[in-house]
Amino acid sequence: MIIIRPMRSLLALGLLLGLAAPLLAQEARVTTARIEKRVIVETIAINGSVTAPRTAHLSSDVAGRITQLPVSLGEHVQEGDLLLAIDGEEVALQAQSADADVGEARAALDNARRRLREGNRLGEGRNIASSELSQRETNVAIAEATLERRLAELDRLEVRLERHRLQAPFAGRLTHRDVAIGEWATPGTPLLTLIDLERLTLDFAVPLDLHHRLADAELEVRLPGSDDWLSAQTIAEVPLEDGSSRQFLLRATLDNPPAMLPGMAVQGRLLLRNGSGPVVPRDALIRRPDGSISVWLAREEDDEWRANEQRVTPGASHEGQVAIQQGVEAGERVVLRGNERLEEGQPLILDDE
């Protein structure tokens, strides 16, 4: 009995090995693709937000009580529309008085000129003293100067009166209103906020070490609620005041922007070209427990395709394609599907052949 048991164990082991050998050699059906040499595009993810560079925090030039407030929060206004009026009755009365003074000065000037014309006619017949004629010329000059002074005073009061009216400096939407009719307005205190929604920009904080690579870079953005990446045009690169952040502001616009509002978060990606080399689809990469990355290649040996595992060093990835820095060459066949349980040297059936 002691001799027979080892014999039976050896027979059983031989039987198992004999059955396993054909299984290891069983052909596997896989899908492959030729490794292509392409321009390597490195994708850098950045985050940003929608901003309104044309934003006005409006305040009054004069102090006074607010008498008119014809706009509502969120309302769209046009350039020149009245936003707010401050009590200007006293200045208006002064302007009326100044207008009357202008009329009086014009009348005085007209009279002085008439007397000078009469004097000139009398002077031709030597019926008026030269001193009288000179005095009349002086009176005309004085009347002209008085009229100029009265006109300047009227213009000054009209400007003061106009400052009691706050008008929209550009077309936009009212986003903040911290005032009501009857309240007192103080010069320099913000009362209304107006933003231009037609000229919104996209602002991104980008690491400074990428600045020298922006010349040939492309920027794509994706707005909240959308799966589409849109091409954006860079319009400014602005250094940030906080030098310790090691970042700069990248400002961009869209040619045909969808509906946006200031403050919306925006995803962005910089596409940086970095030479050319072999690229493989992301599905071809196999990540091992030890952290290494490999691909399965289909190589032809004696008119038969066989699996060959090759460790690789991946690089930048873009749109499902991964650049391979080391390990494969362009033109080789890489396995895309069916690569989960392949073994070295295993015969392959290529679906794409």
Topology:
Layout: H1 4-24, E1 28-34, E2 36-51, E3 55-58, E4 64-68, E5 76-77, E6 82-86, H2 89-124, H3 130-162, E7 165-167, E8 172-177, E9 184-185, E10 192-195, E11 201-207, E12 218-222, E13 230-239, E14 247-253, E15 265-281, E16 286-287, E17 293-301, E18 304-311, E19 313-318, E20 321-326, E21 333-337, E22 348-350
Parallel strand pairs: 1-22
Antiparallel strand pairs: 1-21, 2-11, 2-15, 3-10, 4-6, 4-9, 5-8, 6-7, 8-10, 11-14, 12-13, 12-15, 13-14, 15-20, 16-17, 17-18, 17-21, 19-20
Helix pairs in contact: 2-3
Q: What's the quick description here?
A:
The protein is of the alpha+beta class and 353 residues long. It has helices at residues 4-24, 89-124, 130-162, and strands at residues 28-34, 36-51, 55-58, 64-68, 76-77, 82-86, 165-167, 172-177, 184-185, 192-195, 201-207, 218-222, 230-239, 247-253, 265-281, 286-287, 293-301, 304-311, 313-318, 321-326, 333-337, 348-350.
Keyword list:
3 helices; alpha+beta; conserved putative lor/sdh protein from methanococcus maripaludis s2 fold; 39% strand; Elongation Factor Tu (Ef-tu), domain 3; 22 strands; OB fold (Dihydrolipoamide Acetyltransferase, E2P); 6-stranded mixed sheet; 353 residues; disordered N terminus
Give the % helix.
25-40%
Q: In the CATH hierarchy, what is the architecture of the largest domain at level 2? A: Beta Barrel
The helix-strand sequence is: HEEEEEEHHEEEEEEEEEEEEEEEE
Taking pLDDT < 50 over at least 5 consecutive residues as the criterion, the unreliable ranges are: 1-7, 9-24
The CATH C-level class name of the largest domain: Mainly Beta
Total of domains:
4
Structural class: alpha+beta
* Termini separation: 57 Å
Instruction: Tell me the radius of gyration.
Output: 43 Å
Q: What's the pLDDT, averaged over the residues?
A: 86
Strand content: 35-45%
Instruction: Count the DSSP helices.
Output: 3
What would the CATH topology of the largest domain be? conserved putative lor/sdh protein from methanococcus maripaludis s2 fold
Largest sheet: 6 strands, mixed
Q: Work out the number of β strands.
A: 22
